[in-house]
């Protein structure tokens, strides 16, 4: 999946929250599949965790910027 921070910054806060929810669900699915031996790419869950971190970072940036503008 590998999301760019630049692409994330163009999204709204609501879209970021939805992306975060989807990414967290994918982590759960990937880790479950890895434990069962169905997932071949063992690094997938690490990539997904990094994507979640990117989403959360941009989401926090947007929240801080909205507070500063008030």
TrEMBL record:
Biological source species: candidate division WWE3 bacterium
Gene that encodes the chain: rpmC
Gene3D superfamilies recorded: 1.10.287.310
Pfam family, one: Ribosomal_L29
Family to which the UniProt record says this protein belongs: Belongs to the universal ribosomal protein uL29 family.
GO molecular function: structural constituent of ribosome
Keyword Heme: no
Protein name according to UniProt: Large ribosomal subunit protein uL29
Cellular component terms per the entry's GO annotation: ribonucleoprotein complex; ribosome
Domain of life: Bacteria
One of the protein's GO biological processes: translation
Residues annotated as signal peptide: none
Keyword hit for Ribosomal protein: yes
Keywords attached to this entry: Ribonucleoprotein, Ribosomal protein
Segments passing through the bilayer: none
InterPro entries assigned to the protein according to its UniProt record, in alphabetical order: Ribosomal_uL29 (IPR001854), Ribosomal_uL29_sf (IPR036049)
């Amino acid at each position: 999946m590998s999301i760019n921070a630049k692409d994330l910054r163009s999204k709204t806060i609501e879209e970021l929250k939805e992306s975060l929810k989807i990414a967290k669900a994918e982590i759960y699915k990937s880790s479950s599949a890895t434990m069962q031996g169905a997932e071949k790419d063992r690094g997938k869950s690490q990539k997904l965790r990094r994507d979640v971190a990117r989403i959360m970072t941009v989401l926090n940036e947007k929240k801080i910027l909205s507070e500063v503008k008030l």
